[in-house]
Structures are given as structure tokens and as C-alpha cells.
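Side project, low priority. Logging it here so it doesn't get lost.
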Amino acid sequence: MTVDILAIGAHPDDVELGMAGSLLVFAAQGRQTAVVDLTQGEMASRGRPDVRAREASEAAKVLRLASRENLNLPDGGVSDEPTNRLAVVGALRKYRPRLVFTHHPEDNSGHPDHGACSRLVQHAVYLSGLARVDTGQERFRPEAVIFFNLPRRLFPSFVVDTSEVYQEGRRALAAYGSQLHDLGSAEPQTYLSHPDFLGRLESTHRYYGNLIGTQYGEAFWCERPVRLADPTRHFARGL
């Protein structure tokens, strides 16, 4: 399967938190999108791996993904090491995306797996283009790696206008009921399950939307210019 966009997150729900609206925008433009989750989230204080897997599957339907898979790396122990690199290289060569999206190296959540995911993906993207890295697949290297969940101090390279799909993106995130606020849950409270979390997330989307004169937006950063097919409609460039 070949896709246009591959998003790689450390845990099920990370991609939704970082770019659910953008994936919906890309799908509406006719682009093929896929998500790879590195871990099952088995170390999370709330929810079980089987529950997270069902939630991820439901979110994938809302996002209209062409594919979603989990590499089953150890939650809480994501690292940039040879075995993990080959697993990610295998996914890159399988999906052959033009663009890869993943956590910023200084991801704003503070979770150590997120920064580790970023380093792992960047390393794997390079290795994926080397013929002597043998996975039984044809070598392939994406055009660029683009980062979501930016640190607060970093001004974005571009912002995707997600205003038209904002509520649909919220439905994708709402699929992860085990992780969000639930008055009936006896599980420990976390950052995501705090009653104010979704409000804070909306404020972030409003802030980035305001940068480009829209109601909502999702921000991204990349090290070098990226070719975008329709910048006048969905993207702001040269911020």
C-alpha cells in the first residue's frame, strides 16, 4: 500500500491529539493517509491495551485512514536502537509516504516516549533510503519529516486550517474514552482525563487558527521547505 501521508505516534491517541483535523483535511483533498502507533499504551494509568486498540480502530474510521497499525514496541521504553529502527524502516518502506509526520523532538507533553519517537523516526527515515539496510523491501526515503506537538516557544513553519473539520476531529479524539474525563471512572486521574483538558486543547487550536485568520488550526514545524499542493486554501506559509 502506498500513501501520501504517514503519521507516526508513540501511543494510540498521540496522532489524534497532534493532527486529527489535518488528517481529515488531507483526506478531504483526496490524499491517502495512514497512522502507525509505536506502542499499545500498556503503561498508561487508564485503559487496557485491548481497549486502546478498539479505540484506535474507531478513531481510524472517523479519520478515514487507509490503514492503521501498531508496531508493539514497549510503552515507556521507546528508544532509538537498531531493532526499533528496522521496525520503523519496514513501515516506511511498506507505506512509501511522500511526507512523514511525527512528534517534535521537544514535544510539548513532556512524555519521554514522544521525544524518543521523534528521534527514532528521523533516524529510520534516513536508513530507509539505504540499499544495504535489508528488510526484504525496496529502499525508500520520504521527502520530509514534519513535526506536530510543538514546544510553546517555537513558531510554526505552517498551520493547517482545521475550522471546517474541527468537530469531526473532536469525535476522533472522543473515541479514546478510556483516556478522557469520565465521572464514572475509578481509574487514576491523568493530564488527559482532567476536566479542563479538552478546553485547553481547544484554546491551543484557536491560538494557531488566529495566526492564519481562521477559527481553528493545527501547527507544524519542519527543517526545510515542503512542497504543498494547495497552500492558498489550507496552509499559511512564511509565517
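Brief comment: The radius of gyration is 17 Å.
Revisit when time allows.
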